[in-house]
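Design a sequence for this backbone.
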């Protein structure tokens, strides 16, 4: 064994020398010089190997002593390993006995600690979703640590920890029935963080500066809403903000933000109008035109009707009203026969009709065109919807919401314009018919009176 060790050691030394010689750079200028260098290198390597062999033989005794020391150290470590294994087995038995004693002594307390662990975990989830944490931050961190400690079998809850859990649960229930004011940092929509007064309404809503704010559960911050709900809810929030006591009506959200989020998503009238698109704008423009025309016609015909009624009570014809102009034609043609007079009066009435019926037909046209435009917008919106379905499928309803909104809003706008326009047309038409009826009635009376006088004169 020792000879083999010597052989491998010498072989390793020889390989090392050979490698080192191969790595050296050869700078021979001729073959003779290269031969001389090889010869000298061989002599040098031989001397080096001889010296190494002498050193190895001289260190032979030291190597043998090192082997003996290593063998002795191995025996010591083996004895130590055996001793540690025995101590490990003894400790395991002792731990098992102590665990059994602990289990017997705990008794029903073990079930209590299990309930504490479960309650602390459930309470942590409740506190994380409660807006009361906006006023009392840091509750969830303690509960998380407490639940983690209770999860360790060797860790027992102290009286102080049990009382604090009880206190936190009782405070959550008590604060959920209070309306409190506190100062907190509020994140504005522009990114600015402002410290201002916040009102907490139980565990339901937060109000600041007369507007609803929300509590971001993930980031644990209070921030403004991108939009406020309908005006009546904002009015109730402002009333609560300025209230100092007594009863104040308030729009409470029992779902803790879900209904408020839905109220915010309800589009305003302006947003609904924009949903109708170009067709909706045209319908609204026509509705405005119809309203203006109806107002102008109603005012004109009302004034005209009052003048005609006044003319019926006056014997002097006036050029300021249709009946006066018709009576003036009668006064100018009293000497003609009844048939000619009738034609003259009919002609005068026909001249007055365009001014009386002016633009009334256009109002009627708008009342008929508006629902047709609404139908056009409905078809256009459905085309947009089916294009979205073709491109994105039916997996996401939001991709179809734009087309459906356009289809429904144009229909609503068309009906909202058509229905009142029909009523306005009926009112205006009734006014014009009344004026024309008075003209026709007065004309017929004048002809009858003229014919009666002519008949008496002939007799």
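Sequence:
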């Amino acid at each position: 064994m020792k000879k083999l060790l010597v052989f491998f050691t010498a072989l390793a030394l020889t390989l090392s020398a050979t490698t080192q010689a191969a790595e050296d750079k050869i700078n021979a200028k001729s073959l003779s010089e290269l031969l001389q260098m090889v010869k000298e290198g061989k002599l040098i390597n031989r001397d080096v190997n001889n010296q190494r062999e002498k050193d190895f033989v001289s260190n032979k005794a030291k190597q043998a002593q090192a082997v003996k020391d290593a063998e002795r150290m191995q025996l010591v470590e083996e004895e130590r390993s055996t001793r540690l294994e025995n101590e490990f087995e003894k400790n395991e038995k002792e731990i098992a006995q102590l665990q059994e004693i602990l289990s017997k002594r705990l008794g029903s307390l073990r079930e209590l600690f299990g309930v504490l662990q479960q309650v602390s975990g459930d309470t942590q989830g409740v506190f994380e979703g409660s807006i009361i944490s906006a006023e009392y931050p840091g509750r969830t961190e303690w509960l998380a640590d407490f639940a983690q400690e209770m999860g360790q079998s060797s860790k027992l809850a102290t009286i102080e920890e049990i009382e604090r859990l009880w206190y936190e649960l009782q405070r959550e229930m008590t604060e959920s029935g209070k309306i409190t004011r506190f100062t907190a940092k509020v994140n504005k929509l522009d990114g600015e963080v402002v410290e201002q007064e916040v009102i907490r309404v139980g565990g339901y809503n937060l109000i600041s500066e007369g507007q609803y704010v929300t509590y971001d559960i993930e980031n644990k911050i209070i921030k403004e809403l991108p939009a406020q709900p309908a005006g009546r809810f904002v009015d109730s929030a402002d009333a609560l903000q300025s209230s100092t006591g007594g009863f104040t009506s308030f729009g409470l959200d029992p779902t803790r933000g879900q209904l408020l989020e839905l109220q915010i998503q309800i589009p305003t009238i302006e947003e609904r109008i924009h949903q109708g698109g170009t067709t909706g704008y045209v319908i609204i423009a026509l509705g405005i035109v119809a309203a203006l025309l109806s107002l102008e016609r109603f005012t004109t015909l009302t004034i005209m009707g009052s003048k005609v009624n006044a003319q019926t009570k006056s014997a002097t014809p006036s050029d300021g009203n249709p009946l006066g102009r018709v009576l003036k034609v009668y006064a100018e043609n009293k000497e003609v026969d009844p048939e000619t007079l009738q034609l003259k009066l009919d002609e005068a009435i026909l001249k007055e009709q365009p001014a009386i019926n002016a633009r009334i037909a256009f109002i009627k046209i708008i009342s008929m065109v508006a629902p047709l435009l609404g139908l056009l917008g409905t078809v256009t919106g459905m085309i947009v919807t089916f294009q979205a379905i073709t491109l994105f499928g039916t997996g996401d309803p939001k991709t179809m919401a734009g087309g459906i909104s356009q289809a429904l809003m144009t229909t609503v706008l068309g009906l909202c314009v058509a229905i009142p326009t029909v009523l306005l047309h009926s009112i205006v038409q009734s006014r014009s018919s009344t004026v024309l009826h008075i003209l026709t009635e007065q004309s017929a009376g004048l002809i009858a009176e003229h014919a009666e006088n002519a008949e008496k004169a002939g007799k």
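The mean pLDDT is 80.
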